[in-house]
């Protein structure tokens, strides 16, 4: 009969803390991405303006005049953005006030 000793239990390695990925996102990489997107949008905007230089007649609330088509469309777009931002801001204020008051 042979003397058999049970095998020692295998050592369990302690969990290692997660190593930081050197390629993780950072504020600098986010800023770089924003700069690239802004540059692409700027090129598209300049192209849009260059291709839409024909004058158009504009009448609005008693104002009459002519302006390049691109300028008229950009002004309308900015007006829409401002209106949307104002309505969104009012809604956020309303929701914050409700949360502070307790929900009703």
Automatic annotation (TrEMBL):
It holds the Pfam family LapA_dom. The keyword Cell membrane applies. The chain crosses the membrane at residues 30-50, 70-93. It comes from the Bacteria. This is Putative integral membrane protein. Residues 1-10 have a biased composition (Acidic residues). Residues 51-101 form the Lipopolysaccharide assembly protein A domain. Residues 1-26 are annotated as: Disordered. InterPro entries: LapA_dom. GO terms for cellular component: plasma membrane. Keywords: Cell membrane, Membrane, Transmembrane, Transmembrane helix. The lineage of its organism: Bacteria, Bacillati, Actinomycetota, Actinomycetes, Propionibacteriales. The keyword NADP does not apply.
